[in-house]
Amino acid sequence: MRCTGTGSSCTDFDAGGNQVVPSTIVRDPNMPNAMNASQIARFKSDAQSAGTYYTSCPSSLAGTVVFIDVSATTECQDQNGATYNSASSPGIVIMPRGTMRIKGTFYGVVYLGNEQATSGTVLTLASNSQVFGGVAVDGAGRLEVGSASGNRATIEFASYAFDALASFGTTGLVQNTWRELPPNG
């Protein structure tokens, strides 16, 4: 877990309750955003191509790249409590602005850009929700973690979710970069 603050106010969870596993916290006020504008734009383009780009709250978080492009005052809620993606096919949800509440199980990475620069709650993982992968909230935005059912983690780090992330820029011909050499003879 990473925080841009230096005190415990940037995290508020029961470390003994297995809500976040592992519960290591990096507190660094100079922490850059998890993604830069160019990376966000590439993922946005990927989502547009895949049909998982939304300008309102989607009914599903399933997909390799789900991009939710809403206003800073919008709150999206996963009402289904469904399972989105799988360990063998994780995804990423990117929401540059607004807030989100997840009730279901998500395999992959959940990224809230917090462009509205709030220090309030940006992402809520409700009771019995689970994320297998990772969560990133930029700036001073807060993550609220509900209690899971039984002795299981609400957020469980899974490196495979990060290994699956990839976005590629377009290729193009750069003028005057090739030259023809005369035959040697």
Structural key phrases:
globular; mainly beta; 185 residues; 4-stranded parallel beta sheet; single chain; 10% helix
List the helices and strands and how they pair.
Elements: E1 2-3, E2 20-21, E3 26-27, H1 37-50, E4 53-54, E5 65-68, E6 75-77, E7 83-84, E8 91-95, E9 99-102, E10 105-112, E11 121-125, E12 130-137, E13 142-145, E14 155-157, H2 159-163
Report what the structure shows:
The strands form 3 sheets. Strands 2, 4, 5, 7, 8, 10, 12 and 14 form an 8-stranded parallel β-sheet that branches. With 185 residues, the protein is mostly beta strands. It has one domain (2-163). It contains 2 helices and 14 strands, in the order βββαβββββββββββα. The longest helix is centred in the N-terminal third of the chain and has 14 residues, at 37-50. The radius of gyration is 19 Å and the shape is globular. It has helices at 37-50, 159-163; strands at residues 2-3, 20-21, 26-27, 53-54, 65-68, 75-77, 83-84, 91-95, 99-102, 105-112, 121-125, 130-137, 142-145, 155-157.
What would you say about this model in short?
With 185 residues, the chain is mostly beta strands.
Proportion in helices? 10-25%
> How can the largest sheet be summarized?
8 strands, parallel
Task: Give helix and strand order, one letter per element, not per position.
Answer: EEEHEEEEEEEEEEEH
- Total DSSP helices: 2
- Label the overall shape: globular
| Uncertain stretches of 5 or more adjacent residues | none
- Give the rounded overall mean pLDDT: 82
The figure for the number of domains is 1
Strand content: 25-35%
Termini distance?
64 Å
Number of strands: 14
Content-based structural category: mainly beta
Question: How much is the radius of gyration in Å?
Answer: 19 Å
